[in-house]
């Protein structure tokens, strides 16, 4: 009501001679209605994102449901045999799940130390001017489209690996992991840097005041204090890596197997995302294979959702902490 | 001592962080460097006469009379190669020779039949012709020079015979003489080796110079022209001059690759000097010229992107991104406005925020699945449109994908507008809506623009969501938004992995991906510039 009145007041005062200051009832109701109708309309538009999320979950689930009803979920999760187009098709996604986790973890092993060092560099070591130059450069790394990374992996990395490292194939788990690590770096760096900056001057100054060197301050004070933000950074990096399609499709070799021995990175593997991308073009709509791919998609969606919730929780904790310290 | 160690440790740590950042920058250079530099070579390069012919034939571009003139000049130099090879072939190509002899024999038989000779004479002539034929065939197949000489001499006895004059049988003698001349210089024990090497050489020369002028044009465009680029010509020349062989260097060791002169295969024959001729005259045969091929960005391409450019891909990418922005921008700005201006932090807003974050975390391939199952298979049929992948479905999918980016950027931009602006406007008596439209929006516009540009670049580069919803590797230009289209991103994938023909033209592979990367980098740099300007403005510098 008050808002509606506010809307009308300047008009009334502008030509005070001709119009009374008080609103008529119809003007009052019109203002009230337009305010609330406008607000509701805005709210409905805002809910598009909620609607999208609901639609995504429901449609992926609906398409996957017949598969879940027909085949056992346990076998889907524990069997290694993925032969969707065989005479008696088998849908065991274990090798795909392991493949996804495999490249993601390896990518994190590369990118987490590098990312944290770079975040420390940006938050604590260089001046503001240099930081303003380096940050956009790192952001450019995030801007390069994934298909370009995949192109790099196939056209540059793969021949190099085959010739210089003597691998039997250039498209393998190491190649995919390395490129994924580069892709995850910008996410990790920016989130970790934010949480380290949020740790506050006071902590650092107290530590320096006690005579600690920079490395001691960083590893004993700042990083422990910012740990939840850093873990959230790693999780966001993992989400980027596990959901990435083009790079793993192009660079991982697409062989549905679990590496044996397990640490042998030079073997080809296949991930969930690459399976969906690669197989969907060849399946008939509504076939078992098609439904199985939607089930893989559902699994992927659930995995990223869980990671997302964890990272949100951790980030809200850092936000609260920095709020308290202020 | 302890302090000394600690200082050393501290310094090493500092240096390490510098090294790490340097490494990241180096990575960026390593990834982008070859992509951009090799991609640039799709546009700026040295072309050859074959390229100009191709441009004229496929795109009707260039000066016809000059191309004809140049073709004439180059053909003069090429002719010698063809003549030498043909001459050498006379002594080598047993099959072709045998074929020719048989053809002459058949023609001769036909002529005899129309002459109405008495039956005995007919039989005699026929038998003699058959004898000549058999002798020649023995000569062609033989590897013994004395045997060949005796055979040819036998044949030549019949030459002065009046009955063979002015008939098809003349061909026998002509052929025999030519064969005699051409085998003189040839080591016949290497006969089969020659045949094989010659075939290889001929196919390489066709690759370099295109089909011979007197041959019929092949049906596919990629076989109609020789080396269109000087760098390719150089590569083929290298292949012509040198052969690669895998030989066993020492027993029980891996094979070693060695390079050998191809001319050695033809040592002592007429072909041998041909190699130095090709090497010395390749410029005259191809006429290289520096070329800035800007039409690369508008040209359609032949199958496999063997010739031509990325025009349809650029058009498709632009259509997809702009259409998806048409959906995403208004929704994004309105949602951001609602979240910042109209709401307090209650449960519903928390849920909305959570959904936005979830949406941002959904893997891109899942968006692809969703686009297929919702837009293509459900939404389009619901509205009465055909249920097939099309630009509309793809851009709607991309709009949802980029919604979180749009909302977050706009929200940040609206929040960064100083509170005093709004308070001043409200104090002047403007309503909330008016304040937002006239004060907050203009001040936040650069930030929102940054968000739009960033989502544009995100959408342009996405491949996985459009895989099943509207992108194809090959297809005509889209005529409406209910057709599928080629895009730069899917094209880059297809050329790098899927297309066998594209593997032969690395400059076009790199050209496609470089176009995409340059487009996205430009958008991002634009965003960075806009943002730094806004930052300066809002902070009063």
Compute the number of helices of chain A: 14
CATH topology of the domain at 311-538 in chain B: MetI-like fold
Overall mean pLDDT of chain B stands at 83
Question: What's the number of helices of chain B?
Answer: 19
Share in β-strands of chain A: under 5%
CATH H level of the domain at 311-538 in chain B: which superfamily? MetI-like
- Low-pLDDT runs of 5+ residues of chain B are none
CATH class of the domain at 311-538 in chain B: Mainly Alpha
Main interface by residue count: A-B, 82 and 87 residues
Give the CATH class of the largest domain in chain A. Answer: Mainly Alpha
User: How far is it from the N-terminal to the C-terminal residue of chain A, by CA?
Assistant: 37 Å
The neighbouring-strand order within the major sheet of chain B is 1-4
Going by helix content, strand content and strand pairing, the class of chain A is mainly alpha
Shape of chain B: elongated
Strand content of chain B: under 5%
Q: How would a crystallographer describe the biggest sheet of chain B? A: 2 strands, antiparallel
The general outline of chain A is flat
- Looking at how many chains there are and whether they match, the oligomeric state comes to heterodimer
Number of strands of chain A: 2
Describe the protein's topology.
The complex is a heterodimer of chains A (326) and B (541).
Chain A: H1 2-14, H2 25-46, H3 48-70, H4 73-78, E1 82-83, E2 90-91, H5 94-125, H6 128-143, H7 146-165, H8 173-198, H9 201-209, H10 214-225, H11 227-242, H12 246-251, H13 272-280, H14 288-325
Antiparallel strand pairs in A: 1-2
Helix pairs in contact in A: 1-2, 3-14, 5-8, 5-11, 6-8, 7-8, 8-11, 9-10, 11-14, 13-14
Chain B: H1 2-40, E1 44-47, H2 49-59, H3 64-92, H4 94-115, H5 119-141, H6 145-156, H7 170-183, H8 191-209, H9 230-241, E2 242-248, E3 255-261, H10 272-286, E4 289-292, H11 311-342, H12 347-361, H13 364-382, H14 391-415, H15 419-427, H16 432-461, H17 464-467, H18 488-498, H19 506-538
Antiparallel strand pairs in B: 1-4, 2-3
């Amino acid at each position: 009501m008050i808002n509606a009145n506010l809307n009308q007041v300047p008009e009334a005062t502008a030509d005070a001679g001709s119009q009374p200051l008080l609103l008529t009832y119809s003007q009052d109701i019109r203002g009230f209605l337009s305010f609330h109708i406008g607000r509701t309309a805005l709210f409905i538009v805002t809910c598009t994102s909620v609607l999208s999320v609901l639609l995504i979950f429901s449609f992926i689930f609906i398409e996957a449901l017949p598969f879940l009803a027909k085949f056992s979920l346990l076998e889907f999760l524990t069997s290694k045999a993925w032969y969707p187009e065989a005479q008696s098709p088998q849908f065991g996604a274990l090798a795909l799940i392991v493949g996804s986790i495999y490249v993601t973890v390896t990518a994190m092993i590369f990118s987490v130390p590098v990312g944290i060092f770079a975040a420390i560099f940006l938050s604590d070591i260089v001046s503001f001017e240099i930081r303003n130059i380096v940050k956009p450069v790192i952001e450019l790394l995030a801007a390069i489209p994934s298909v370009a990374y995949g192109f790099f992996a196939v056209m540059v990395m793969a021949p190099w690996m085959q010739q210089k490292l003597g691998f039997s194939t250039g498209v393998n788990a190491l190649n995919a992991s390395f490129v994924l690590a580069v892709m995850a770096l910008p996410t990790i760096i920016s989130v970790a840097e934010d949480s380290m900056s949020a740790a506050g001057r006071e902590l650092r100054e107290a530590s320096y005041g006690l005579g600690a060197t920079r490395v001691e301050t960083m590893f004993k004070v700042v990083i422990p204090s910012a740990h939840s933000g850093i873990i959230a950074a790693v999780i966001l990096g993992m989400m980027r890596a596990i959901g990435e399609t083009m790079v793993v499709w192009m660079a991982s070799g697409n062989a549905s197997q679990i590496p044996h021995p397990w640490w042998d990175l030079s073997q080809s593997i296949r991930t969930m995302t690459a399976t969906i991308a690669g197989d969907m073009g060849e399946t008939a709509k509504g076939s078992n294979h098609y439904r199985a791919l939607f089930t893989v998609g559902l699994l992927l969606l659930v995995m990223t959702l869980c990671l997302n919730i964890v990272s949100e929780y951790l980030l809200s904790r850092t936000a609260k902490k920095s709020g308290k310290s202020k | 001592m302890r302090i000394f160690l600690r200082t050393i440790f501290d310094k090493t740590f500092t240096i390490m962080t510098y090294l790490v950042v340097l490494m990241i920058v180096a990575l960026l250079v390593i990834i982008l460097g070859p992509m951009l530099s090799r991609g640039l070579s799709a546009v700026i390069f040295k072309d050859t006469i074959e390229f100009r012919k191709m441009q004229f034939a496929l795109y009707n571009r260039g000066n016809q009379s000059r191309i004809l003139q140049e073709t004439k000049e180059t053909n003069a130099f090429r002719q010698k190669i063809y003549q030498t090879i043909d001459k050498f072939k006379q002594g080598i190509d047993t099959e072709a020779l045998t074929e020719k002899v048989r053809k002459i024999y058949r023609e001769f038989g036909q002529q005899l039949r129309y002459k109405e000779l008495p039956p005995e004479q007919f039989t005699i002539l026929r038998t003699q012709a058959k004898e000549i034929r058999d002798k020649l065939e023995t000569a062609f197949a033989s590897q013994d020079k004395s045997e060949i000489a005796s055979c040819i001499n036998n044949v030549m006895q019949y030459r002065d015979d009046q009955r063979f004059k002015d008939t098809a049988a003349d061909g026998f003698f002509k052929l025999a003489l030519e064969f005699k001349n051409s085998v003189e210089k040839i080591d016949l024990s290497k006969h089969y080796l020659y045949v094989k090497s010659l075939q290889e050489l001929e196919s390489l020369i066709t690759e370099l110079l295109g089909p011979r002028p007197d041959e019929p044009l092949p049906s596919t465009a990629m076989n109609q022209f020789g080396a269109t680029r000087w760098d390719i010509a150089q590569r083929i020349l290298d292949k012509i001059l040198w052969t690669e062989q895998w030989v066993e260097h020492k027993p029980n060791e891996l094979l070693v690759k060695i390079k050998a002169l191809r001319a050695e295969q033809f040592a002592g024959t007429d072909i041998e000097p041909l190699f130095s001729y090709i090497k010395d005259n390749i410029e005259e045969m191809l006429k290289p010229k520096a070329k800035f091929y800007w039409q690369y960005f508008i040209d359609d391409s032949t199958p496999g992107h063997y010739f031509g450019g990325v025009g349809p891909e650029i058009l498709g990418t632009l259509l997809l991104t702009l259409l998806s922005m048409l959906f995403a921008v208004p929704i994004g700005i309105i949602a951001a406005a609602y979240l910042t201006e109209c709401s307090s932090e209650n449960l519903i807003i928390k849920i909305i925020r959570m959904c936005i974050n979830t949406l941002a975390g959904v893997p891109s391939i899942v968006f692809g699945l969703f686009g297929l199952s919702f837009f293509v298979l459900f939404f389009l049929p619901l509205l009465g449109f055909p249920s097939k992948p099309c630009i509309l479905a793809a851009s709607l999918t991309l709009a949802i994908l980029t919604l979180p980016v749009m909302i977050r950027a706009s929200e940040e931009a609206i929040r960064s507008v100083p509170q005093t602006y709004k308070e001043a406007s409200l104090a002047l008596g403007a309503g909330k809506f008016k304040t937002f439209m006239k004060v907050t929006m203009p001040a936040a516009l650069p930030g929102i623009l940054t968000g739009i540009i960033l989502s544009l670049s995100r959408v342009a580069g996405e491949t996985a969501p459009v895989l099943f919803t509207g992108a194809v590797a090959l297809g005509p230009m889209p005529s409406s938004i209910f057709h599928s289209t080629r895009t730069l991103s899917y094209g880059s994938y297809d050329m790098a992995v899927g297309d066998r023909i594209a593997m032969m033209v690395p400059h076009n592979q790199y050209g496609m991906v470089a176009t995409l990367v340059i487009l996205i980098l430009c958008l991002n740099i634009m965003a960075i510039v806009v943002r730094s300007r806004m930052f300066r403005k809002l902070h009063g510098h």
